[in-house]
């Protein structure tokens, strides 16, 4: 790793890292990541004023030549039977903005409930997870980092300084969150990782930095298929040392009407979020989708214990996608399955954690029992 001074800004640079010079366009980053360009390196701009000196570093994924691109994934999933699209493509710049709006909707109780649990439990979490040493705070799928602010403040109060490592596939949202947090907390340092969770975890375990508290919040676990969620939790466990902890936030299974309202709000923000997948294909792959000819569908499946999101074609139609060089055909009523959001019982969460090599230290939930936050430690690690 070497150190550079760019227009008065102290920067550090290692392989695959871009240091933040003012004036570079961070918006190019989302697009480059989407295009899946081999070795797509993205530059992120940040203002001097917000960053101060060397308190921010951004690392970007160096994509291997074999990583499937957005076009590859669309070609596979839209020509499958039944049609589907990978939900990870929701989160381009527009999708991330829409998701932030979803998080403020009264119907989408997940965010406010989890935030309330974190406010009540922050000092207990910090006391349990720190072993008298400074903790490094790592967050998988950090988004705007708004809920995390409670924990950042509690950690700064306890240890005076903090290294925060947010990992998110959207460089734009990482950049915006970092700018806000660094301006608010003068003794905070941030190493942002603009990459998928798995890549971020792997990169992190190469940089050993003392005991870690890893956050996986917002019920993001529920967007993985059951076998994948187990695989991913095992992967997190593999990257944790005996002194590290995982804080897992997950939505519980409860009243189907409340669950469905959370994914089909009356103001239509979730519908826009869902349809943004089609708009993204239009923007980035030269698709000709007309979003008015699709309906947003969200329903709870009691058999699968998940909320499913779909887009349903209102009419028979043929949609060309230039970058794929093909036309995708829909009959009226045909759907594209865009997302699954699994819901859990407390017992399932405890068992899942155990199966994946964790022991529960403490868990919290809200009074109607809609959401759960569990503090987990690697099983076999000694209790103090
Ligand atoms: C990001 N993830 C946890 C959200 C969820 O609730 O599954 C995504 C979402 N989809 C529609 N609304 C929110």
What does this structure look like?
It contains 12 helices and 17 strands. With 384 residues, it is α/β, with parallel strands linked by helices. It folds into 2 domains: 45-59 and 107-254 and 346-378, Rossmann fold (3-Layer(aba) Sandwich); 70-94 and 257-342, no CATH class. Helix 4 (93-102) runs antiparallel to helix 11 (269-285). The protein is globular and about 65 Å long. The protein binds N,N-dimethyl-L-histidine.
How far apart, in Å, are the first and last alpha carbons?
A: 36 Å
Strand residue percentage? 25-35%
What is the approximate shape? globular
> Helices and strands: which structural class?
alpha/beta
Domains (count): 2
Mean pLDDT: 86
Name the ligand types.
Answer: N,N-dimethyl-L-histidine
Major sheet description: 9 strands, mixed
Text of the CATH class of the largest domain: Alpha Beta
Question: Briefly, what is this?
Answer:
This protein has 384 residues and is α/β, with parallel strands linked by helices. Helices cover 35% and strands 26% of the residues.
């Amino acid at each position: 790793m070497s150190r550079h001074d760019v227009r008065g800004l102290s920067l550090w640079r290692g392989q695959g890292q871009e240091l933040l010079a003012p004036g570079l366009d961070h918006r190019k980053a989302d697009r480059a990541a989407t295009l899946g360009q081999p070795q797509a390196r993205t530059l992120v701009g940040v203002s001097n004023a917000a960053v101060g000196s060397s308190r921010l570093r951004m690392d970007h994924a160096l994509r291997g030549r074999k990583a499937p691109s957005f076009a590859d994934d669309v070609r596979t999933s839209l020509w499958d039977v039944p049609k589907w699209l990978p939900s990870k493509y929701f989160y381009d710049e527009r999708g991330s903005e829409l998701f932030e709006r979803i998080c403020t909707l009264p119907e989408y109780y997940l965010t406010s409930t989890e935030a309330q649990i974190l406010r009540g439990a922050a000092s207990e979490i910090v006391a349990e997870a720190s072993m008298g040493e400074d903790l490094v705070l790592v967050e998988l799928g950090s988004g705007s980092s708004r809920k995390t602010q409670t924990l950042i403040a509690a950690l700064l109060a306890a240890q005076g300084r903090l290294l925060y490592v947010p990992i998110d596939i959207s460089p734009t949202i990482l950049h915006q969150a970092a700018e806000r947090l660094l301006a608010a907390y003068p003794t905070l340092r941030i190493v942002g990782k603009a990459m998928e969770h798995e890549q971020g975890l792997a990169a992190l375990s190469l940089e050993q930095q003392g005991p870690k508290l890893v956050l996986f919040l917002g019920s993001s676990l529920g967007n993985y298929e059951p076998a994948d969620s187990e695989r991913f939790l095992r992967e997190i466990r593999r990257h944790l040392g005996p002194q590290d902890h995982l804080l897992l936030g997950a939505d519980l299974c409860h009243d189907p009407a409340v669950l469905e309202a959370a994914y089909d709000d009356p103001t239509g923000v979730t519908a826009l979020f869902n349809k943004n997948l089609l708009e993204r294909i239009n923007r980035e792959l030269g698709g000709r989708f007309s979003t008015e000819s699709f309906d947003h569908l969200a329903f709870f499946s009691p058999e699968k214990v998940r909320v499913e999101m779909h887009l349903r074609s209102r009419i028979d139609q043929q949609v060309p996608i230039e970058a794929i060089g093909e036309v995708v055909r829909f009959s009226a009523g045909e759907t594209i399955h865009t997302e699954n959001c699994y819901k859990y019982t407390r017992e399932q969460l405890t068992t899942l954690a155990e199966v994946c090599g964790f022991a529960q230290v403490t868990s919290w939930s809200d009074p109607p029992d809609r959401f759960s936050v569990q503090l987990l430690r690697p099983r076999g690690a000694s209790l103090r």
